Amino acid sequence: MRQVYLDNNATTPLHPEVVEAMLPCLLTEFGNPSSIHWAGRQTSTMLQQARAQVADLLNAQPHEIIFTSCGSEGDNFALLGSVEALQGKGNHIITSAVEHSAILDTCRYFEEHGGRVTYLPVDSHGAIDPAAVEAAIDSDTILISLMWANNETGTVFPIEKIAAIAQQHQIRFHTDAVQALGRLPIDVKRCQIDLLTVSAHKIGGPKGVGAVYVRDGVEIAPYIHGGHQERRLRAGTHNVPGIVGFGRACVWAQEHLDSETKRLTALRDRLEEGICSRLKYVSRNGDRHNCLPNTLNLTFPYVEGEGLLLALDMLGIAVSSGSACTSGVEGASHVLRAMHADDMTLNSSVRLSLGFHNTAEDVDYVIQHLPAAVERLLAMSPAFDDLNQYDCEVISCEIDPHSH
Ligand SMILES: Cc1ncc(COP(=O)(O)O)c(C=O)c1O
Question: Which residues contact 41 (CB under 8 A, 6 or more apart)?
Fold first, then answer.
């Protein structure tokens, strides 16, 4: 049976070039890069090269990159490190209701310790209004943290505008760019970003490594205490193979950004059109005009999302029925909920996210099998007859050929 992996917002396979770059660190180059002898110097050189490669993709300087163990750690570091460094200057953070749990749970932790957080709402497409960001600022605000692109719907926030607002008000701006990295052009200098989180495993790099861009001059408190690594901001012996793999994945992303954007957009549109033209009842979630090129979040009314996920799994097709981190956990997507989704949408949505390894044949396989799986589940759905009463205009797919 063919296996088609369309869950690249959860994680991606490794690029073969990444594996090749990592192999020497797993086989022969084992030194601790903090050691001053020959073995340490070997890996120290590799570490510095990887730092420059990650920096290049963001248009940052190498010393502005702090390696972490993952995107979640990066988000925790950016928020809690800022709160500690800015103690006495204010006690209020602005974020959005649709952030990843690495931000939302850290914000809740901040609230439990006396902080104040504004969770900005989004519209029905998951979009945010920059004017609402500005309106939420008060004299107590120390940080604005808003994601670049949403992991569930692919909706892209107007980061450049928001960063400009933050700068005007002299408020620190952090963005979680875990899903944007390698999928959208990122230029931290042009966008006036203070802190930015990224993660290797979303771009064909290894799991267990991430980074935070900390703009020159931005004061931040250490998150892990111990050694002198990472400018004393993040102690711990470096994960050299992971970091080297991350660097190589960034090189790949930079070289292929334009071509992959075009290719993935075309594949995503083919997928959408193929599915939507074969089904009467289906709708797309998110902002189709400001969306990651690889992400498609669809609602199949009266078909339970988890049920469809399992039916597709049996056909060798891997998708997600929410964010990977919440799949299998009780409770509907907080992202769709924040978009004022009705119960139907909350229960009946799946996310298909493409990656560098996906081909037109993969897409065609899904087009061949997914609509039939939906029809089968629909026929078994006790509420199937209600479909005739459902507002067809709301759930029509509305393929817009000019949107990309
Ligand atoms: C937007 C976003 N932020 C943060 C993370 C966490 O990254 P990591 O898995 O490297 O901890 C994810 C992972 O899904 C994500 O999608």
Answer: 31, 35
Which tokens go with 384?
A: 């199937």
Query: How far is the CA of 365 from the CAs of 10, 12, 270, 371, in angstroms?
Result: 21, 19, 12, 11
Asked whether residue 401 is domain-assigned, the answer is no
The larger pLDDT score, comparing residue 324 to residue 162, is at: 162
Residue 131 makes CB contacts below 8 A (sequence gap 6+) with none
Contact 144, 94 (CB under 8 A): yes
Residue pLDDT, tens place only, 304-343:
999 999 999 999 999 998 544 344 445 789 999 999 999 8
Tell me if 400 is assigned to some domain: no
How many angstroms is it from 93 CA to the middle of ligand 1?
Answer: 20
Q: Domain count for the chain, please give it.
A: 2
Mean per-residue pLDDT of the chain: 93
Catalytic residues: 325
Q: With H, G, I as helix, E, B as strand and everything else as coil, classify residue 241.
A: helix
The continuous run of DSSP H or E covering 107 comes out as helix 101-112
Side-chain-side CA neighbours of 207 within 13 Å: the count stands at 6
Q: pLDDT tens for residues 57-86?
A: 999 999 999 999 999 999 999 999 999 999
Domain that holds residue 234: 16-253
pLDDT at 386: 61
Give me the count of residues in the chain.
Answer: 404
* 199 CA from centroid of ligand 1 (Å): 7
Evaluate: CB of 147 within 6 angstroms of ligand 1: yes
Give mean pLDDT, residues 243-272.
98
